């Protein structure tokens, strides 16, 4: 039995030796890979173009405004912008702009203003030198500059050529434009004798500038363009004997006798056109303010070698929110294309040399041709050139002179005493 048991043990040991040893099961490693893919999605983005809206401020109302608006309309179509126009006289702007600029604000993007005022306030104006240089050779007027930089550019030309009359009125009463001073006085007598005529000449008035224009015409005629320029420069005083003699011998004797009392100038147009007065001194913008410009005639005082000519000056305030668009607008207005649009409307003459005469309406075309015969058709405007407080004093003193001619010497002393020193 022991042998049998021992044999079994030996057999079991032998069998266990033949069975391979158990191998540990390795852990299963699961690797997760994240694959990133960029998916390009095509999107259609609608871009809305922002159309700038500009505000232009100018002095023109009524018929003058109607002549200017086609320019803005053409600019809108060409430049793809919207433009609104607001009326402000330079006299009002001189009070409105300073506090606006002090607050870094601007009531408009393009503003028409006096040249001297822009020069004195150039720190608030955009530099337009590059814009101007592209057109400079074509202009008869110079821009507003300070230290060689341009801050305002001239627009269309106005002139103050003399005394306007209705051709039909002259024909009806057998009147002729004068060629001498004596003929001028005789013409005034003839007009004064016509039934229904209140005075030979109606005096237009506003803040005083229409009267000042008449005075300047007398100074230029009897003192020459050089006297006007010397007065502006302060080289000749208003108490100078030559200046006083022009007032005392040529102008003052006509006041009261031939000139009416001052009448608001736009009302004066209607009164004159209705033939209550025979003559009317006004700038060439009158051609766009009467019912029939083809019935207009005009003459200078006999012997005049020049007439006042000037323009309105456009500048851009630094505080505009549309400076680049405003530059585009000014560039269009002073371009040949823009200037022709304005010339076609009448009432102003182009300040460019390359605008042909046939662009103008008949009355303006005749005026342009007549001015070509005058020695200096663009003598500077006295009160505009001097500017400042003296300009208002000049206006006030001329209105005083019109109603009190005996105050001549007092008037001249005031003008001399208050004239700004250079």
Automatic annotation (TrEMBL):
UniProt keyword terms in alphabetical order: Signal, Transport
SUPFAM superfamilies: Periplasmic binding protein-like II
Signal sequence residues: 1-21
InterPro entries, A to Z: Bact_solute-bd_prot1, SBP
Domain of life: Bacteria
Family as reported in the entry's similarity comment: Belongs to the bacterial solute-binding protein 1 family.
Name of the protein in question: Carbohydrate ABC transporter substrate-binding protein, CUT1 family
Organism the protein comes from: Thermoflexus hugenholtzii JAD2
Phylogenetic classification of the source organism: Bacteria, Bacillati, Chloroflexota, Thermoflexia, Thermoflexales
